[in-house]
Amino acid sequence: xxxxxxxxxxxALASTCFAFFVVTASAEDAVVEKWGRFEILLNGPAEGxxxxxxxxxxxxxxxxxxxxxxxxxxxDGVYRIRFMPEATGEWRxxxxxSAWELxxxxxxxxxxxxxxxxxxxxxxxxxxxxxxxxxxxYWVMGxxxxxxxxxxxxxxxxxxxxxxxxPFNKLRxxxxxxxxxxxxxxxxxxxxxxxxxxxxxxxPNYERFNPEFFQHLEMRVQNLQDLGIEADLxxxxxxxxxxxxxxDHMDDATEERYIRYIVxxxxxxxxxxxxxxxxxxxxxxxxxxDWDRNFQVVVDADPYGxxxxxxxxxxxxxxxxxxxxxxxxxxxxxxxxxxxxQLYRDVYRKPVVYDELEYEGNHDLRWAQLTxxxxxxxxxxxxxxxxxxxxxxxxxxxxxxxxxxxxxxxGELKGDSPERLAFLLEILENGxxxxxxxxxxxxxxxxxxxxxxxxxxxxxxxxxxxxxxxxYKGLEAGMKFKVEIIDAWNMTITPVKGVFEIGExxxxxxxxxxxxxxxLDGKPYQALRITRVN
Amino acid sequence: xxxxxxxxxxxALASTCFAFFVVTASAEDAVVEKWGRFEILLNGPAEGxxxxxxxxxxxxxxxxxxxxxxxxxxxDGVYRIRFMPEATGEWRxxxxxSAWELxxxxxxxxxxxxxxxxxxxxxxxxxxxxxxxxxxxYWVMGxxxxxxxxxxxxxxxxxxxxxxxxPFNKLRxxxxxxxxxxxxxxxxxxxxxxxxxxxxxxxPNYERFNPEFFQHLEMRVQNLQDLGIEADLxxxxxxxxxxxxxxDHMDDATEERYIRYIVxxxxxxxxxxxxxxxxxxxxxxxxxxDWDRNFQVVVDADPYGxxxxxxxxxxxxxxxxxxxxxxxxxxxxxxxxxxxxQLYRDVYRKPVVYDELEYEGNHDLRWAQLTxxxxxxxxxxxxxxxxxxxxxxxxxxxxxxxxxxxxxxxGELKGDSPERLAFLLEILENGxxxxxxxxxxxxxxxxxxxxxxxxxxxxxxxxxxxxxxxxYKGLEAGMKFKVEIIDAWNMTITPVKGVFEIGExxxxxxxxxxxxxxxLDGKPYQALRITRVN
Lengths: 534, 534
Description:
The structure is a homodimer of 534-residue chains. The first copy, chain A, has 534 residues and is α/β, with parallel strands linked by helices. Chain A folds into 3 domains: 7-112, Immunoglobulins (Immunoglobulin-like, Sandwich), CATH 2.60.40.10; 122-429, TIM Barrel (Alpha-Beta Barrel); 451-532, Immunoglobulin-like (Sandwich). The model of chain A is unreliable at 1-26 (pLDDT under 50). The interface between A and B is medium-sized, with 26 and 26 residues. Chains A, B: This is DUF5060 domain-containing protein.
């Protein structure tokens, strides 16, 4: 689908003209970190429509590995090619273009070891989990603020400050603005600061991008990277009701051009994930085949294979398709019980992230009225199912002059859940390598962990007063365990006195040799962490 | 994949030799019902290995529609070609074969309207449900008896008598025998009466089928058809522990030959469904790719497109693949709550049948110890999720000299669930056309039906004492409804006095204009049937 350069012709031209046209590109840095970003800046034609007419790419090689990467037009005669090196050492490049000024630019640069906060891009790990490229585990703790990058600068800075102080390490965010106002109310629209195409809002020129829009987006993605936050970029969404801005009914060619442009601009940012669409099935006039095609364009355009998902409304996309890296699910009911939350795992054999399990909020719409307890419970249920949760809040505060909600515009968090999610993140970080996996799936056992290493049992709303010590799978008599009682809501971890030694398997389980039970408080949201000590 | 006949050569031969070799085939009947079976019987070579060496097929046409159907060798020099006509009127055929005696046999026959009990084969209807070819609804009420066709004749007749008196209209059954004995116990094996290949059990000759084995199977499939029961034939299974009979580790070519042979023999039986495997993931040394291939062989070989599924153990096959017509799920936990039971529907957008939701039984294995209440509850939960359940029982009775269980060998039913399932089947049969569909999915509402027509709400283990009358979706103020209280366990239907009229929508629901609630018994397994009366 990608327009192909006539490379033989270009190379023939190059070898003829080499002496005259070789110039060293102006690169911002000649030294760059592994998984950092190397940028070639070129000056070229500004006349006509460079977005449509100029093709530009560069081939990078370190002698072992070769990658060809698309460039893009950034306005005012400026062209850029960005590259994220995945190996240290010497790299060289050569550009190819349909414009002679941009062709056969060559250069070299040094890729050095990553700094301590740079673990590379995140990818799937151990089928159901995630890790950074350097194999540092990545435990998803996501939130959503759809159009936080469409607000005045000062407000965006406030959002960043909030994020910095939050536990969140992934942010779902729309590239495009939405027409929804503060209270899902068209009568109170909040027009965005910028539009992705030339033309003000209602009359876009689909053949010319607005570089300033994308420069701003990039800055915000970089801000997130600096905070250690993955940017889960939503490429399309249905919140352009009645086609006000023309962003939800572009033709196929425009969609492809847009995807190739944003991927060329942003794929070198290691913290980028691609969410092909939000509530894809609510986008009118699009079929599954359209989303298949858009996925495939991303696969073709992205040289690094960043994570790819698509988020559902009421219909679920076939996440078994090979271009989907993980399931990004909206289904609050599924995330409410461990048994239900498990089911998508086996269907997809991929990581399952309940990116939308409904929101902590006080709205009269039923998807925006979870209590803090409800939301934190769903995160724990998702965890105890071997999956991941996703946060946002829709708390509208009449005394707050900002008149916005976190879900839509960012700003400040007002809910009770973020500090509890920080507590859960600590549990995840102290969990077993390989991730929390269901121990006895399809049997109502809300236990995850790694057999014989660590078990996390989450009782949710059951509120038991005691729990008979018994374990399942991968065990031998004589193994010893310590037990901690966790209060998921009150954020306490209380060690239980003594060490529990298991006997031979009886029916399906190993019991404590002394037949002991653990005494619990009879409150909801209790959990046990059981860790092997011998 | 199908071996191709050299048709041009055969036709050239045919036109040369026509005067000498044309004979009318001996067909059992010259008049056959639509969706009945027309059989051509031919005598041909018995020497060598006809299973491997002789190719035979016939092309049938009524002038509008043409179908080419494979024949098969039935031993003793006898060849058969079976055809299920799907349209009334005059049909003709001509055979093609690699053996000259079997070639260019022609004939004609009359297809008449089906008799009253013949509704044709079952296929998918309204995405999530089933109907016969004449559009008569088919409500799945399935049971399983894996190897009932491998017992002495008298015992098989007892199984048929039991089925005749039961509510079941689908039977899951293995083609191959299993090595398991009465109590899942290898020390008490029950050797089968016949093996599918020549050679006694442990040393099969994979190149020669045993026609008697298949003749017997066909007789039993026909017996089921006569009782109005669909035969969900399991082509492969893992219950040949340690490869005792060599039926779970055939090579690819043998598997394909077996599939083509059984499909040629049985696809003309209108009540056949193909279950590619039972607990496919427990068959050692097979990968998903093997099952993909076997599905594709069935698709290629079956001229009628009978229903196709594959049944899981602990891993779930990708039921979104195009050759899967419906999901045949083993997951008792999923079928235990309406919310969980719904989830596979949206994933697959196909009918979901919980063919194994665990068994009513008294075994010490935990998948065989449901109470009657548990099993009936799961059927109702599946129904209230817009899916279907599947029954079997594993009740071992020391006083019973037969020493068998229904799940394995058939015989008699001993459990409490069948009569309650007959009651549920009546509810299904009196449900709305189009099937019971979730009314407010992903919102814990255990209600199915068709908006504005009929609603079925199943409270399961909740045991409420009252229920505020409110309805969701597809409604207008002024619609009137009658209400019946159903006791799923005690099999009673109690009309509620009065007619309920709904007002305007308030938040998400329409309430009774008089604000009434329905008084319930506070017992588990209650349901409401709410039917529009104006």
